[in-house]
Amino acid sequence: MADSGRVPHALMLGGMPGIGKMRLARAFAQYLHCQARVDGDSCGRCPSCIQHQTLNNPDLHFAYPIVKIDSKPTLCSDWAPQWREMLEQWSYMPPERWNELMNVGASQPRIFVTESEEIINRATLSAYKEKLKIFIIWLPELMQNETANKLLKIIEEPFSDTVFILVSNNDAAVLPTISSRTRRLNMLPLPEDEIASWLCEQRGLDSREALATARRAGGSISKADQIACHPDELKEFAEIFQNLMRAAYGARMQMLKKISETTAAFGRRKLIRFLEYCNSQVRENFIYNLRMPQLMQLSPDEEAFSQRFAPFIHAGNVEEMTEAFSVASRDVERNCNAKIVMFDVAMILATLIRRPHSRPSSGAR
Ligand SMILES: [Zn+2]
Q1: Predicted structure pTM score
Q2: How many Å lie between the centroid of ligand 1 and the Cα of residue 45?
Q3: Centre of ligand 1 from the C-alpha of residue 46, in Å
């Protein structure tokens, strides 16, 4: 696109979190500005490239979700030091890390309407030095409606020297009025061997450990990183998951209540990791029944459990079970009462796990 001079005014990079969309957006912006492109890459040495690499290019602007300070409206630039740290230290952009850097507590970061005014102001100023002004908007799905409405016109009919690059973790949630005005590029999950070598190089894992971790990460570097940062959790999670499933099958209410209390006490981030673990185990056990070892990612401990447990996960309950864990995960993210969320999940499991394998075809879902 850049070489043929046909860069759309607005691009949207979509795909799951942790696959390098922001890295691509930044590399593309640097390429667009580079004064001495070589073989389809930026030179890395011209003044413009240096400015990009040091995050000092006056014609590259970032917009991203933030929280208010003292309930006053803020601009992204108020959070510039944290943003710089994020881009430099966490270039695969795990959103939970960004929330931690801002110390958001229970508030939900947003791209506020004040920011769209700022973007319009900056776009209307003549370019400082380069030909092109580039706006990278991270997580456009977190724009307030008002913000999006203000930006519509400039995204649809931008000035000739302006490019918007939207980087989304969930492009289905971006307001259609915005997404329909962009050229969408869908980025794919990363291959396991790439994730494994990243873990070896960046986190010092040995190659066996790295590959096992990569297999659980579903193509996302940030998920792999999260798993690698908490190596002791897997054993703990496996034990609780197995107890949870046994108690659900036996409909042992006291036990289910106890497990919901123990897990609720994990705190938000660890509890979400646990729910994601449960979700992956349900999937793995479903696959286990298909006898396709090449698709399986179970440890020897987990496999020993699965030999007897897997038949209880089948086409009649697998979807609803994974949905229950996903909903719980979202509720915990939104700061709902964790004990109630976990007890709810336990009750749903107790119903689903005893559901017979073949269900009457007339049964309503
Ligand atoms: Zn250059």
Answers
A1: 0.79
A2: 5
A3: 4
